[in-house]
Write a structure and sequence with these properties.
Length: about 650
């Protein structure tokens, strides 16, 4: 990558600036000047570093100087429309144009990329930036570390830093601070995995206990379900047996149904009522006949009594007449014998007549009494027959009633049996409909146990995965640590770093000072990991603190240049230009002479070398000069031949 053209609009101190780098080769002085100001004798603040920042910002969207905000690139006086345009030639000879804008009122915060005039932007700005990084061949940190040589605040006194600071700075230079960040992230992840492993272990134990408990619950419910099923089967069998017994009893009971027809009892009752009626009529007729006989007997007896009374009277008259003499006691007249005989004959006739009448009456009484007796006997026979019939009918009616009652009882018993059979059926159906709750609980416990077992297995897998991740993270924690990749990288780069330190030591001190880097230090006879710098002086001085000020300055410069060469050596595609930003300030005359050799070496290996210096002794080395001029609050660039 070789810069050809740099244009700036409202970037830092530049309102409008255009730098044509295509015609510049070799060593080019980058100077500064304040015009029309009391600061004319001082070039600081003119905008030299801003020019370097513009080149870096165009490529990466970040300035060379660290810790700045994105808005800091916008020229304060303008407040908007910041744009930097950079044209460079890539490794394949193609012209690449980058236009990067910030707070631009038309293009916003835009990034444009063209290759040989064709739009080469990606879908997103990040995609475009990746393409630019690939075209340049190095990232921002490597660019700053390998192209820009400067008296870094820390690099300038590297030998005075502590071991941790040296390692931190070397990690930053090598770009392996990512390993430290990776280790921090790894440690964070490792702690998270260890905490997670503790949680998962606890969860696995809890799940194992839950699975054991659920298995016990499942087995208990299964046993209860089996016992319930056995008991339920027995109850169903008993219910079926009861129902079969009831059906058999109903069948047997149906065979014992009384055979009386439905009309037998009413007919017998009617006949019984008819018999009682006939009996009552017969008794009534007998009573009437008896009354008639009584009346006839009464009349006949009355006649007999009258005839008997008359017969007694006549007998009394006959007796009195017998005892009478020949004189009538009434009239005192003598009674003639003929009259007396006639009178006695009349009395005898009357007596015979009355006696005949009494006898006839008695005979009639006997006849009537006989008829009466016969009527009574017949009435008794009829009564007896009717009573017997009535009793028979009553007995038949009673028997029919008893049969009917027995039938009613049979019906009631049949209904009771049917009710019991219906109840047995209902009980059987209820038993059949009963659910084995233990079975459902056992199934639920089995499912829960299965789910918990699966959850436990998943947790075990998680534990295994987390344990594996923990082991992997522990491995990388060690790998990202001082004894891992860093140590390996340090050991790998030490030959390069020491070779460049010897090279620059030869250039800057003529071999009087030897700077050597080491990652192992001997202490009390033992070797321990410790980054250190060993300094050897021709005079025998081997301590940085015992060197003179100028010698310490040259040691710092050797270390700084070696470190920057190390960064450049690690670039996938080394850039054919370099920028020395006040890298040689503070050197004495001997140091300046050594700096001339450094720049001459840089000019031989680079196509373009920009140098920012205040050393007047170095000005004669430059065939070209770029002057950044600050005038009336704004900066621009002049090319001085």
């Amino acid at each position: 990558m070789r810069p050809r053209l740099l244009e700036m609009t409202n970037f830092l101190a530049f309102s409008e600036a255009r730098v044509d780098l295509s015609a510049l080769h070799g060593l080019v002085l980058l100077s500064g000047e304040h015009r029309g100001s009391d600061m004319a004798a001082d070039s600081n603040g003119a905008g030299k570093s801003a020019l370097i920042d513009a080149l870096c910002w165009a490529l990466y969207g970040k300035m060379a100087r660290p810790k700045h905000r994105a808005e800091d690139v916008v020229r304060r006086a303008a407040g908007a429309d910041t744009m930097v345009r950079l044209v460079f030639e890539d490794a394949h000879g193609r012209l690449v144009e980058i236009r990067r804008r910030r707070k631009h009122r038309k293009f916003k915060d835009g990034l444009h990329l063209e290759i040989d005039g064709a739009d080469a932007r990606g879908t997103l700005a990040a995609d475009t930036q990746q393409r630019i990084d690939k075209l340049v061949g190095i990232d921002h940190d490597t660019f700053v570390g390998s192209v820009l040589y400067t008296q870094h605040p820390l690099r300038g006194r590297f030998a005075e830093l502590g071991d941790d600071q040296k390692k931190e700075l070397l990690e930053s230079i090598l770009g392996v601070e990512v390993l430290s960040r990776a280790r921090e992230l790894t440690k964070k992840e490792l702690r998270a995995r260890e905490a997670e492993l503790v949680r998962v272990d606890a969860r696995c134990r809890a799940l194992a206990e839950q699975v054991t408990w659920l298995e016990r619950q499942r087995d208990e419910h299964a046993a209860r379900a089996a016992a319930w099923a056995s008991e339920h089967a027995a109850r169903l069998g008993a219910a079926d047996a009861r129902r079969r017994a009831l059906l058999a009893e109903i069948h047997a009971h149906a065979a014992r149904e009384p055979g009386l027809g439905a009309t037998a009892e009413p007919k017998l009752a009617e006949e019984s009522r008819e018999a009682r009626r006939v009996l009552e009529e017969a008794e009534r007729g007998a009573r009437e006949t008896e009354g008639a006989f009584e009346r006839r007997l009464s009349r006949v007896r009355s006649e007999e009594s009258a005839a008997a009374a008359l017969l007694r009277h006549l007998r009394e008259d006959s007796a009195r007449f017998e005892v009478l003499g020949d004189v009538c006691p009434i009239c005192t007249q003598p009674i003639a014998p003929a009259a007396r005989s006639d009178h006695l004959a009349s009395i005898e006739e009357q007596l015979a007549e009355q006696a005949s009448r009494v006898l006839a009456a008695r005979q009639r009484v006997a006849v009537i009494t006989g008829e009466r007796q016969r009527a009574q006997d017949e009435a008794a026979r009829v009564r007896a027959r009717l009573e017997a019939r009535a009793r028979e009918l009553c007995e038949q009616a009673e028997a029919a009633r008893l049969v009917r009652a027995e039938h009613a009882a049979w019906l009631r018993e049949r209904e009771a049996l049917r009710t019991r059979e219906a109840e047995a059926c209902a009980q059987r159906e209820a038993l059949g409909a009963e659910q084995n709750t233990h079975e459902a609980l056992a199934e639920q416990a089995a499912h829960e146990c299965q789910d918990k077992a699966a959850e436990r297995d998943d947790a075990e897998l998680d534990r295994g995965r987390i344990a594996s991740e923990r082991e992997r993270l522990a491995f990388w924690d060690e790998g990202f640590g001082p004894r891992g990749l860093k140590s390996y990288l340090f050991d790998t780069v030490l030959p390069i770093l020491n070779a460049r330190a010897r090279f620059h030591g030869e250039l800057l001190t003529g071999g009087a000072l030897l700077v050597q880097f080491s990652t192992v230090t001997e202490k009390d006879g033992d070797l321990e990991d410790r980054f250190s710098i060993q300094i050897t002086h021709r005079s025998g001085v081997d301590s940085y603190a015992l060197l003179s000020g100028g010698e310490r300055q040259r040691v710092n410069l050797i270390i700084n240049l070696a470190l920057q060469d190390l960064v450049a050596s690690r670039a996938a595609r080394p850039l054919p230009f370099a920028i020395y930003d006040e890298a040689f300030e503070g050197l004495d005359r001997t140091g300046v002479e050594a700096a001339v050799q450094v720049l001459a070496e840089a000019a031989r290996s680079k196509d373009l070398v920009l140098v920012v210096t205040h050393q007047d002794a170095l000005r004669d080395l430059f065939a070209h000069e770029l002057r950044v001029v600050c005038e009336r609050g704004g900066s621009f660039v002049e090319t001085v031949s």
